[in-house]
Amino acid sequence: MTIRVGSAPDSWGVWFPDDPQQVPWGRFLDEVSEAGYSWIELGPYGYLPTDPGRLGAELAARGLSVSAGTVFTALHHGPAVWESTWEHVGRVAALTRAMNAEHLVVIPEFWRDPATGEETEPGRLGPTQFAHLVSGMDRLGHRLREEHGLTMVVHPHADTHIDTEENVARFLHATDPDAVSLCLDTGHYAYCGGDNLRLIQAFGERIGYLHLKQVDPAVLAEVHEQRLPFGPAVRRGVMCEPPDGVPALPPILDAATSLGVDLFAIVEQDMYPCPPDRPLPIARRTRRFLASCGA
Question: What is the pLDDT along the chain (295 residues), one digit of tens a residue?
């Protein structure tokens, strides 16, 4: 059993395909390699080059490989959004597979604007929308495997409909294990009040991927008290550098190891926006910390 540690554009303050506040993609690739990582995620589609030949050459020059691509979906809206969803997901999946990766991280769409906090729809799904979410995710997972050879790992995320212990368990009980695996993001699950170790114990067979992240409990308390949306919470520093926050990562890595399967463990420290010189020192320290944990 192997845990393969990597990082992601998110840890360099990258949330969008193109944004003047973000570091250029070449600098991200240089620095993630310099920090000691050999695996990365693609991040938002279009941030890194989308031509497989060019991207492959840029990665090879730096000794990097891709663990997964990432997409957002709003499948709870039902069949009306399927074609547009697949059009985008298919592009990301094709690039992901061309990079010899085997996973696609799927994040549900936000129910409130991550920047302004405006509620764009109810925060809890009704029976019809939940049924759409389940059937859509099952369909997407099967199609990704059949057409691209990818394992879909669904990412519980703050300010989405798959967030708390209750909602994650409800989702996992309802979906097809052959189509839907879980990307456990330790920080987002803690942000939403979940117990990571309890989730691993209860649904270990569904976990196919890890995002390693911590939250600052003092900032998190302010976030909940003030009902801040995710974007302002990140700007306030709710996601912090390990090992300064919660949950403790060594017990989670031990529990993940006990599952007896190969897993990627990708570091994600949400920092959008951030000064361009901030990510690299944090990335170096985080890699050393994880090495001290045996990862």
Answer: 799 999 999 999 999 999 999 999 999 999 999 999 999 999 999 999 999 999 999 999 999 999 999 999 999 999 999 999 999 999 999 999 999 999 999 999 999 987 778 899 999 999 999 999 999 999 999 999 999 999 999 999 999 999 999 999 999 999 999 999 999 999 999 999 999 999 999 999 999 999 999 999 999 999 999 999 999 999 999 999 999 999 999 999 999 999 999 999 999 999 999 999 999 999 999 999 999 999 9
Could you tell me if 180 and 141 are in contact, meaning their C-beta atoms sit under 8 angstroms apart?
A: yes
DSSP assigned state of 109: P
**Conformation bin of residue 246: beta by default, left when phi > 0, alpha when psi is -120 to 50:** beta
- Cβ count within 10 A of residue 8: 24
R_g of the chain computed on alpha carbons: 18
Taking alpha carbons only, the member of 177, 48, 185 closest to residue 108 is 185
**SS3 label, residue 184:** strand
- Rounded to an integer, what distance in angstroms lies between the CA atom of residue 105 and that of residue 209? 9
What element of type H or E holds 174? helix 165-174
> What does the DSSP 8-state code read for residue 49?
-
What CA–CA distance (Å, rounded) separates 252 from 290?
12
- pTM (whole model) above 0.70: yes
Phi/psi of residue 95, nearest 5 degrees:
-70, -40
CATH superfamily of the domain spanning 3-292: Divalent-metal-dependent TIM barrel enzymes (3.20.20.150)
Give the domain ranges of the chain.
Answer: 3-292
